[in-house]
Amino acid sequence: xxxxxxSARRGALVLAGGRSTRFGERDKVLAALAGVPMVxxxxxxxxxxxxxxxxxxxDQTTAIERALSGMEFHCVAxxxxxxxxxxxxxxxxxALDTDYAAVVAADMPFVDPEFVSSLFTRAAGxxxxxxxxxxxxxxxxxxxxTDATADACAAALSRGERELRxxxxxxxxxxxxxSEIREHADPRTFTNLNTRREFAAAERVLGTGDCS
Length: 212
Prior knowledge:
By secondary structure, the chain is of the alpha/beta class. It contains 8 helices and 10 strands. The strands form 2 sheets. Strands 1, 4, 5, 6, 7, 8, 9 and 10 form an 8-stranded mixed β-sheet that branches. A two-stranded antiparallel ribbon has the order 2-3. Helix 3 runs antiparallel to helix 5 (146-158).
């Protein structure tokens, strides 16, 4: 189904199950970023879509449900935690009842909703639209055809793969160029927070109000 078709359902999958080893003992996606849990900041930027799923570890479920209190969403626990993003994407996409889905990492609090909308348009007629930023593909801020991608992730896992790129290689995908990114996205959209220093810098940006 063409994602530009008004009958196409658009969902969002927030990937929250990774271990935040560089952040310290706390779970970074649950840490308050300028007073708001980071996972909630990401979820709120995707809340205009038809359905929202958060993929996480079983031991995160209660805390994430508390962090997203009042929002319409559901959590799905990774059956094989600590096995990389392929598991989270496969499990999360299979929990969505949508034709296409935006997959976004929970440590990208500045994800640009307008850019996500443009990615849905670029995915038209394809299985995925994936940006290439500063020379690197960004598969955890991208659009995927839900069923085809879940199947590709399952096939990659059966081969012992752990990287999301292994599933992407099996999909008919378009690469969104740097010039397209500059045209449609806030330059901070790909900022991901891994350390407390990066977290503090993001809080300063949010504190100045210099953030849409």
